Amino acid sequence: MALSDFPKFVRKNYEIHEWRHASAVLHTDFRKEWDDIVAVLTKFRLQKSHITVGGGGRSKVSASIDQAFTARGWAERKFATQIRVDQNVYDSPTHKVDCFKNTVGLELEWNNKTEFYDRDLNNFRLLFELRALNVGVIITRCDELQEIFDSLGRGSSYGPTTTILSKLLRKMEGGSGGGCPVLVFGIKKSLYDQNS
Predict the structure, then answer these.
(1) Can you tell me the distance from the alpha carbon of 5 to that of 134, in angstroms, rounded to the nearest whole number?
(2) Which of 2, 29, 36, 53 is the most buried (most CB within 10 A)?
């Protein structure tokens, strides 16, 4: 299996990257989760109101995508992990995963600091090594969306120090995910609906 197995709509509207054959693992061993991801990505549209309406807290984009996965049985998950050396037990806490189902973890990074990518990738690596996770997925935004933010007068709220695809790719290419298969989707301008 390869990235070409994603439906045309997904390939056209998302920039897709993978490491360690993540799409093949997902498509072959986790077909229901593959179908969930395809369905959510196909339905999603970047609404103008997601960008122009403030409000603090979690972004409207992240909330929208998270709700779509929750409706399909995905849930936020925190793991209690420990390391045991002889009789000594040490807590080894991991960060929660935004959406988790059947050993597939998914993180939504819309407008956080780039350090969140380090946190997510390290978490995927550790959970993979502990056999709690088989595939990690990150949905983020393509750099090209900056043109839309700028045109709406919101460019200063988004920028090169936040979670954009080019920053994630550098971290992935540097090996930040370890041996964990990781699949990345970057939201493109073609998904923007200026009338909503």
Answers:
(1) 19
(2) 36
Locate 43 and state its tokens: 């339905």
Q: What are phi and psi of 171, to 5 degrees?
A: -70, -40
Residue-range domain boundaries for the chain: 7-192
CATH architecture of 7-192: 3-Layer(aba) Sandwich (3.40)
* Cα distance between residue 40 and residue 150, in whole Å: 27
Question: Which sign does the torsion angle of CA 167, 164, 179, 181 carry?
Answer: negative
> Residue-wise pLDDT tens for the chain (196 aa)?
567 889 999 999 999 999 999 999 999 999 999 999 999 999 999 988 878 766 555 678 888 899 999 999 999 998 887 788 888 888 777 778 999 999 999 999 988 888 888 889 999 999 999 899 999 999 999 989 988 888 888 777 777 677 888 889 998 888 888 899 999 999 999 999 887 7
User: What would the two tokens of residue 93 be?
Assistant: 């806490």
How much is the pTM? 0.91
